[in-house]
Amino acid sequence: MTVFSDHPFHSNPNLPLYQGIYAHMRAAILSGELKSGTKLPSTRALADELKVSRNTVLNAYRQLLAEGYLESREGSGTFVAPFLPELLLTTPHPGAPKTAQPAWAESSHPSFSERAKAQIAASQPPSVRRSPYPFLPEAPALDAFPHQLWSRLIVRRARRMALSDFMYQDSAGYRPLREAIAAHLTISRQVHCTLDQVMIVPGSQGALDLAARMLINAGDPVWMEDPGYPGARGAFLGAGAQIIPIPVDNEGLVVETGIARAPRARMVYLTPSHQFPLGVTMSLSRRLSLLDWAKHANAYILEDDYDSEFRFAARPLATLQGLDEADRVIYIGTFSKVLFPSIRIGYLILPPPLVDPFLKVRRLIDIHSPMLEQAVLADFMIEGHFRRHLRRMRALYAERRGALLEAASELPLEIHSPEAGIHCVGWLPDGMDDLSLASRAADFDLDLTPVSNFSIEPLPRGGLLLGYGGFGAQEINDGVRRLGALLRTV
Asked: Is the residue at 241 inside a domain?
């Protein structure tokens, strides 16, 4: 294409290459050089013309598609959109009535609540690639999931559904699934609960949002692990919480620092079994100390049992919920990592005094989770498939972890890799910036997540999350080779 003849996007070495292509194409579209309806070359053809990787062009196209500058027509290709975002903001829709705007109205800028603004700033969109690059940390081994078995269970369950299954259901969730979850957690995680304490929600994010709605008032201090999970921070900001960052060391969240910074905090959120993102396990003495503080401070503990199912060596420590004798712990679990991300089924284990109030508010949000998926998951658990799947995944992830550690042994990284989960942390040499490194990773067909993305207070050292769960040995070896090439550029 003549619009790329001078290749001006190569001029800024600090800008990721795909962003340079994106910016150049956007400018050409807005200037009219690329007119509405123009068909663009395929990503492969343009990559060949520009002498860049196809994934670099794919990333530029995806950003332009997401922002509305391009549109994809199935079977035809990619075209410049007929209506551009800037025009849609300033041009009324044909046929729309013309109404006078008050002087205070700012029609070109949406107005959001202060809480929504805080959530927007904290939001980090998940990867939606069909085939993720190494080393995406949240990618499970979808290649090893029993897809055919799951499909058969869906068909069987759909054929058996009664008319009553198409009516509104219990807001707590499908009873057989709640029974299966309670039985599994009692055996595998030493959780103390009955099925009446189990509430099915749309993933762990739905659990966090509901807990924040129910228990946090505007201005309430909430302890959060730092670095920690941004989705939890976003949920608490949406409730108006004052986030209190608490550092994490090799024994987990530093309880003494939390007490010093906010002794009357309303809530604490943590991932004690496999801390996200650092992977450390909270010590028993810290767990007991935290429970004692929560009891006397009348605070609630949100225990996110992240990746607890994938431990390759010794059994994990007892859950905080299993140690709790004062009804201060709310336990959160999800099937997004142990099965597949799009299932969007999670659960809360609530202390008995919270069950009825939570149910009443849940009915005002989405009434209940979809019925069919719950029923299929219940069948999957009750018939023993879930237990067998976990055993296979533990062995597979241990193997893939070993492949990563062996391949990465020559890299200039200090790798922390606990015998659990589906990712490890590669700490960078002093002075190397993880954010700038991650921004250039797409040019090497890599998906690197900087540890800095998850911190509130500055970290003494940069690091990268290296996910191995969703990648075979050859992909891991190829990814490590490309990572080495990237590191050599700095």
From this structure: yes
* Domain shared by 369 and 396, yes or no: no
Whole-angstrom distance, CA of residue 445 vs CA of residue 249: 32
User: In the Cβ-directed half-sphere of 92, how many Cα atoms lie within 13 Å?
Assistant: 8
At residue 160, does pLDDT exceed 90? Answer: yes
* Residue 80 domain-assigned (yes or no): yes
In whole angstroms, what is the distance from residue 207 CA to residue 332 CA?
Answer: 7
Of 90, 120, 153, the one marking the end of a domain is 90
Distance, in Å, from the CA atom of 442 to the CA atom of 458, rounded to the nearest integer, reads 25
The values of phi and psi at residue 56, to 5°, are -60, -45
The answer to whether residue 70 sits within a structural domain is yes
Paired tokens of 377: 């998951």
* CA–CA gap between residue 174 and residue 201 (Å, rounded): 11
In the sheet that 414-416 helps form, which strands lie side by side, from edge to edge? 414-416, 423-427, 463-467, 449-450
Find the CATH number of the domain harbouring 23. 1.10.10.10
Q: Which of 336, 351, 383 is the last residue of a domain?
A: 383
Q: Given the structure tokens 């929504």, which residue do they identify?
A: 116
The number of distinct structural domains making up the chain is 3
Q: What single DSSP character describes residue 443?
A: G
Angstrom CA distances, 439 to 18, 31, 65, 100, 138, stand at 10, 27, 20, 45, 18
CATH code of the domain containing 269: 3.40.640.10
> Does one domain contain both 358 and 412?
no
Predicted confidence at residue 47, as pLDDT, reads 83
Q: Is 420 left (phi over 0), alpha (psi -120 to 50) or beta?
A: beta
E-strand ranges in 112-183 read none
Query: What contacts 340, CB < 8 A, 6 or more positions away?
Result: 140, 142, 145
- pTM, 2 dp: 0.78
Retrieve residue 62's tokens.
């995806």
Q: Which structural domain range is residue 398 located in? A: 387-488
| Listed range (134-138, 221-225, 309-313, 317-321) with the worst mean pLDDT | 309-313
Among 62-66, 384-388, 453-457, the range scoring the smallest mean pLDDT is 62-66
Residue in the structure block whose two tokens are 């080393």? 135
In this structure, are 235 and 344 located in the same domain? yes
Distance between start and end Cα atoms, the chain: 32
Q: Under DSSP, is residue 253 helix (H, G, I), strand (E, B) or coil?
A: strand
Same domain, 432 and 378: no
For residue 408, the one-letter residue type is A
At residue 14 the predicted structure's pLDDT band, cuts being 50, 70 and 90, is low
| 187-202 confidence digits (pLDDT tens) | 999 999 999 999 999 9
- Which residues of 50-205 form beta strands (DSSP E)? 70-73, 77-80, 198-201
The answer to whether residue 109 is domain-embedded is: no
List C-alpha distances in Å: 84 to 65, 224, 278, 300: 11, 41, 42, 48
Residue 122's contacts (CB-CB under 8 Å, 6 or more residues apart) are 230, 233, 234, 237
